[in-house]
Automatic annotation (TrEMBL):
Gene3D superfamilies: Aspartate Aminotransferase, domain 1, Type I PLP-dependent aspartate aminotransferase-like (Major domain). This is Acetylornithine/N-succinyldiaminopimelate aminotransferase. It comes from Candidatus Kinetoplastidibacterium crithidiae TCC036E. GO terms for molecular function: pyridoxal phosphate binding; succinyldiaminopimelate transaminase activity. InterPro entries: Aminotransferase_I/II_large (IPR004839), DapC_beta/gammaproteobac (IPR019878), LL-DAP_aminotransferase (IPR050881), PyrdxlP-dep_Trfase (IPR015424), PyrdxlP-dep_Trfase_major (IPR015421), PyrdxlP-dep_Trfase_small (IPR015422). The keyword Transferase applies. Pfam families: Aminotran_1_2. NCBIfam families: DapC_gpp.
């Protein structure tokens, strides 16, 4: 067996199950509300279901590894409409993928070159654990850069020593961020690109929350758009990852795209030819329908905005909370340890949240997730209001 498997850490939800094992609800009359996992619960658009029904016969054909031409063109059109003045070649700079999770993992395997001594992959801290697991299984050392709550939860890039940068082959960034909902601004993008140019590492920009934002006049800046503004030719060393899961409330569809540097994309296509992860024509048809329609995305976004505004207004008096710039997460500080708070909240109010420390690693003597919880506002508006009321009651009662 691959010995690197033994280096993998338990997944956050495995830790959560262990934490809550044997704990029972004290108030049986309360309906349980699970806000721990970022799985969208909004209805998916009818156009996607119709596309699947209308193309059911396509399952009799093998899919193309590169993806269907019409899907790549549809994605290119979406990118150009979403990110002003951003042009991309659907033939050489886009690949459809089976959701961003699959792509983030497999992409790491093509980037890491183990012929160099002790390769490093830099991850934001807290982070999506796929970054860490993919790095370990590729034979690289994960290195964690703490988010700075005093600076919009941006990464403390200046904390990274030169000897680490010298060994860095891949840097993960996540914008809008999970769990803090922060958006990387142009100034920070400029710093990231300059570091990439200096140390020649690849940037993997995870943008799966890009369409869940609160200011319709100011959508989050994306990596391709930032590169275009800053004159980074051909998106050198940049690859972005996007998904329909959050945008269109179809996490089970497993559909997204990867786009960027054509030199890297060509190698990724080669890898995928052997990896067998081509998108079915059926999913491709559904994806074309989804990327072609913005009406359902606006409606989806408004539902999240309503929940965030109401939830924030109800718990802001009781917990220290920063309203997210984007995404559907609330990243709240707790008056006691995050694990103690999570366990007692589950027991007393039948609400499940995720301890922040489960999403992070200790770096420089600090786990930046300590005394924080991630609350995923994916349930109905009514459930989110009920959860906010219970959390407020809980904090008032015990803290």
């Amino acid at each position: 067996m691959n010995p690197r498997l033994n280096k993998l850490n338990p997944y956050p939800f495995e830790k959560l199950r262990s934490l809550l094992s044997g704990v029972s609800y004290k108030k049986e009359q309360l309906e349980p509300i699970n806000l721990s996992i970022g799985e969208p619960k909004h209805p998916s658009p009818k156009s996607i279901a119709d596309a699947i029904k209308d193309n059911i016969s396509s399952i009799s054909h093998y899919p193309a590894t590169k993806g269907e031409e019409l899907l790549r063109e549809t994605i290119a059109n979406w990118i150009e409409n979403r990110y002003i003045a951003t042009k991309i070649d659907p033939n050489t700079q886009i690949l459809p993928v089976l959701g961003s999770r699959e792509a983030l993992f497999s992409f790491t395997q093509i980037v890491i070159d183990n012929s160099f001594r002790n390769p490093v992959v830099i991850c934001p801290n807290p982070f999506y654990q796929i970054y860490e697991g993919a790095s370990i299984l590729a034979g690289a050392e994960p290195y964690y850069v703490n988010l700075d709550p005093e600076n919009n939860f941006s990464c403390k890039w200046d904390d990274v020593p030169t000897e680490i940068w010298d060994r860095t082959q891949l840097v993960f960034v996540c914008s809008p961020g999970n769990p803090a909902g922060n958006v990387i601004n142009l100034e920070e993008w400029k710093k990231i690109f300059e570091l990439s140019q200096k140390y020649n590492f690849v940037i993997a920009s995870d943008e799966c929350y890009s369409e869940i934002y609160h200011d319709e006049s100011n959508p989050p800046l994306g990596g391709l758009q930032a590169a275009n503004i800053l004159g980074i030719k051909d998106y050198n060393n940049l690859v972005v990852f996007s998904s329909l899961s959050k945008r269109s409330s179809v996490p089970g569809l497993r559909s997204g795209f990867v786009a960027g540097d054509s030199k890297i994309m060509n190698k990724f296509l080669l890898y995928r030819t052997y990896n067998g992860s081509a998108m079915s024509p059926l999913i491709s048809a559904a994806s074309i329908a989804a990327w072609s329609d913005e009406k359902h995305v606006h409606a989806n976004r408004q539902l999240y905005n309503d929940k965030i505004e109401i939830f924030y207004s109800k718990i802001n008096k009781y917990l220290e909370v920063t309203k997210p710039q984007a995404s559907f997460y609330i990243w709240a500080k707790t008056p006691v340890s995050d694990t103690e708070f999570t366990k007692k909240l589950y027991q007393e109010e039948s609400i499940t949240v995720l301890p922040g420390s489960f999403l992070a690693r200790e770096y420089l003597g600090v786990n930046p997730g300590n005394k924080r919880i991630r609350i995923a506002l994916v349930s109905s508006l009514e459930e989110c209001i009920e959860a906010a009321n219970r959390i407020a009651r809980f904090v008032q009662t015990y803290y």
